[in-house]
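Lab notebook page, bench 4
Experiment: in silico fold of construct C2
Operator: M.H.
Input chain length: 578 residues
Purpose: comparison with the prior construct
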Amino acid sequence: MTLSETETRAPAAAPARGARIRPPRPSDKPNGQWKVDGTEPLNANEQFKQDDNGLNVRERIENVYAQGGFASIDPTDLHGRFRWWGLYTQRKPGIDGGKTATLEPHELEDEYFMLRVRIDGGQLTTEQLRTIGGISTDFARDTADLTDRQNIQLHWVRVEDVPEIWRRLEAVGLSTTEACGDVPRVVLGSPVAGIAADELIDPTPQIDEITSRFIGDPELANLPRKFKTAITGHPSQDVVHEINDVAFVGVTHPELGIGYDVWVGGALAAVPRLGERLGAWAAPDQVAEVWHGVASIFRDYGYRRLRNKARLKFLIADWGIEKFRDVLETEYLGYRLADGPAAPKPLTIGDHVGVHRQKDGRRYVGATPIVGRTSGEQLTALADLLEAHGSTRLRTTPHQKFVFLDIEEDRVEPLIAGLDALGLSVRPSLIRRGTIACTGIEFCKLAIVETKENARKAVLELEERLADLDLDAPLSLHVNGCPNSCARIQTADIGLKGQIITDDEGNKVPGYQVHLGGGLASNERDEAGLGRTVRGLKVSATGIADYVERVASRFAADRVGEESFAQWAHRVDEEVLR
């Protein structure tokens, strides 16, 4: 579906709110844009990608490194191409966060790997879940973490075991292909795609087309950096679309019917920028083409000389949204997209926790572990529990949660009891429901501070301390081990960024810088916005519960009417937030 040449284009959307980011400054040096500067590599990272496509390392892993062990791995493969198959070396135990920035990667890394299982759309069967659980117990010391990108990560994996792990995953339709690396990462999809009673459109066909056509395609396996995608047809806008490189949000066009509002250029990290509406509407059968066009622009025009500028958000900051859309349509699509409306404000919470009606009359049940931490044993038990209650389908979510599908109404309460026994809460406290955490210093070479355990302890303490506090919505607490924002600290009510801080006695200790009042479009706010930072406001790693109790209590006492935490945090004086 296209517009005729006589039709006029609607004004482009206003720039999304976010940190100001600057493209590389004009200079005599090329920026590594392939269609502008040519394809000559301008740094070591670009060189190794051109020397050998990252996808090719699989053959060496299976036939050389798995036999020779860790010591046999070529350093460039180890620190580069392994990522194309979901493998990162993990942090060596006992190295404190103060040394993260001073040691070389080989000094920080252990001879074990994090393995990321790619789960596009978060869609799993109990057979697949049981397979992941078995791999965890057999090869990963019973570790398993839900990520906020719907994947499951395992740790303590040896290279010798990777071929067998791949064999088991692929036997049930799972893979680790391009789960990491400078490639199209996992496609976030609505966890209730195809089953929610209030769904506008099921994005599963679009997710399937993108992944089947383009994931593992050598033509897209050398991007400037990672490329993130989100697609939803649910009115809660449940895929954090504003912080993805490209996103599609279900919307009804007044003339053309149900399709997708297209967003581009979102990403957080140390220099966050919220995505922008392209101003275009894509029909369901156009989504894969539009996705491929945006990814190809990134490949061909993205900045490659400086790795810290090699995300799509920097190109869009340079070009502007109107030029980006024009290049997409004229150079890559060959037709104009229809102008389209924005999706309305969400009316419900998008984490899907609790019991909800499916379109077929059955129920889906959303449950949360504490900060995404689970285990192989628990995953296997979950598969057994779900099957015992008549279902073989579940989903992971972008909020480190599970959604269990196809539950008959009379089996809901027995399932909830079984989930409680496994440590998964369908009716969690507001603080447990809203807390997520990245991997942290336990396994991550970039981390400065512990996250999972600190957040877990804080949640358990706060459930007691805040039990009588008048909070009517989940308080989002996001805990990150470094400035890279894997846990989306800038878009949380309370975001904690790991760093070494100075305590009251002058000692250097692990702690966090505090961001307050961030959030994405939700039932509480019309549009996304980044959190506020207060100069000098930092908390120690052991002081999370104390700080959250203090600021939450002040919010409950000082809020005006139905004011949200984010509105309050941006309104009050800095001293109130300390």
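Observations: Residues 1-16 have pLDDT under 50 and may be disordered. The longest strand covers residues 109-117.
Next step: discuss at group meeting.
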